[in-house]
Amino acid sequence: MCSQETYHPLTFAPKVDRLVQADRVDGSMYYDPDLFEAELERIFYKTWVWVAHESEVRNAGDFKTTRIGRQPLIVVRDKTGTIRVLENRCRHRGATVCEKQKGNATGFTCPYHSWSYGLDGKLRAFPYPDGYEDILDKQELPLRSLRVESYAGMVFASFNQDVEPLTDFLGEAKHWIDLFMKQGAGYPIKTQGEHKFRFQGNWKIQLENTTDGYHFPIVHKSWMSSVDEETSEMLSFMTDEKAVTHALGNGHSVMVMVPEHVDLDQDDGSEPLQERFSHIVEALSKDYPPEQVRRIVRSLHGAGFNLNLFPNVAMSMAFFRVLHPVSATETEIRHIALGMDGGPEIANRERLRIHEHFQGPFGFGSPDDAEAWERVQRGSLAGKDVPILVNRGLNREVEAPNGDKVSHATDEGGMREAYRMWKRMMSDE
Ligand code: FES
Ligand code: FE
Predict the structure, then answer these.
(1) Which residues belong to CATH 3.90.380.10 in the chain?
(2) How far is CA 150 from CA 76, 118, 226, in A?
(3) To test the ligand 1 pocket, which listed residue (87, 89, 90, 124) has its Cβ within 8 A of the most ligand atoms?
(4) Which residue CA neighbors atom 4 of ligand 1 most closely?
(5) Is residue 205 within a helix (H) or strand (E), and if so which, with residue range?
(6) Three-state SS for 10?
(7) What are the CA-CA distances from residue 291 to residues 188, 193, 298, 343 (Å)?
(8) How far apart are CA 25 and CA 32, in angstroms?
(9) Rounded CA gap, 203 and 312, in Å?
(10) Of 21, 133, 181, 248, which residue is 20 to 30 A from 418 by alpha carbon distance?
């Protein structure tokens, strides 16, 4: 589907202005290829983008490959312990120097003509150097580095060397990241593997979904009917007044689904442990004191909220969801399961089973979400002047003392926040 419009810098801002209004957005935002190119330049190549969790590159030489937009990257911990994000592009004639998804290496050697690079990206050597005498300076040809900063183990990178400090970009979201990490029950969080899939739809359709509480009992009806009563009760927040969504600024938002699990360290002991975990309670009780058993078991579902960090990562219950835009009409999703680093194996295994049950390829949750997202994509092609509504809850949105816009968890305040940021970044010349 080709756009009728072009995005010339002088006329771009007014068009963006028309595409996003306070209560609605234009359907072309899901399929316009010119707009997609502009999003890569103005959002993905400009701001902080999540690339890894520190536990994925724990030791010197540990690496993973990833990408931001179309650009392939290597996230690697160098010999000094510093995490670097390198462009995966040989400085000779451009081949990728690493194709493995993850592993441990002492450096990266290009398979084409064998130029070799250190973990810090420096060009170390190349074969038959006589052809380069006096014309090539190794110092000038490292694998190029992105800006890298971390918060609470979350590693972000940016192509923009002048990007604002990560701590400013995250702003209010930092508080929620700290709360999210409490699901380690006293242990640090670690990743426990990932799976990926693609859906035929625009990346913003997924971005909208993470703080869309309205769809939960509808799209996830089959998941609700596949779990025991206590679990479905726990996630029945449609009429719970304490279930709220906060717009956190800079496009970030959080949707609270289980208010009593927002801060897992707050526990007055009144909440009964779920029956379904009784075998875990029994097993852990042999080695851990009752308070620690309770803390671990209460954290098994993860945090009681979904945190959406603009533009590409969601921290949800007990997993990270990372989105990679492929084209205007295709998106890759990675689901990364989380566990307790050093925590009891039986509890980490249970986390994986819970994760598979909802998010897994044969799970009862994510495949239903993906079906809904693809239907949004297809439907948006009909009636080109019909807007996408994101107005739910505008009648009851209030401003909290810290400036967060707060509304019910079934409202669309998170989407409005993401689109405010989208508009700001896309209008920036
Ligand atoms: Fe990498 Fe030639 S392209 S060594
Ligand atoms: Fe969903």
Answers:
(1) 172-421
(2) 14, 22, 38
(3) 90
(4) 113
(5) helix 203-209
(6) helix
(7) 18, 29, 11, 15
(8) 13
(9) 9
(10) 181
Any idea which fold 172-421 has? Naphthalene 1,2-dioxygenase Alpha Subunit; Chain A, domain 1 (3.90.380)
Q: Report pLDDT for 343.
A: 97
| Residues in the chain, pLDDT under 50 | 1-5
pLDDT score, position 140: 97
Q: Is residue 311 reached through a cis peptide bond, with omega within 30 degrees of 0 on the bond before it?
A: yes
Residue of 413, 273, 255 lying closest to 350 (CA atoms): 273
The finding on whether 90 has its CB within 6 A of some atom of ligand 1 is yes
Beta bridge partners of 325: 331
Residue 113 near ligand 1, beta carbon < 6 Å: yes
pLDDT at res. 415: 98
Give pLDDT, residue 15: 83
What is the predicted pLDDT for the residue at 235? 82
Q: What is the number of helices (H) and of strands (E) in the chain?
A: 13, 22
Q: How far is the CA of 124 from the centre of ligand 2 (A)?
A: 48
| Burial profile 211-241: b = 16 or more Cβ within 10 angstroms, e = fewer | bbbbebbebbeebbeebeeebeebbebeeee
Nearest to 176 by CA among 143, 221, 211, 144: 211
Parts of the chain belonging to CATH 2.102.10.10: 49-154
Q: Which of 372, 7, 86 is nearest to 206 (CA)?
A: 372
Q: 49-154: which CATH number, 3.40.630.10, 2.40.30.130, 3.40.50.1400, 2.102.10.10? A: 2.102.10.10
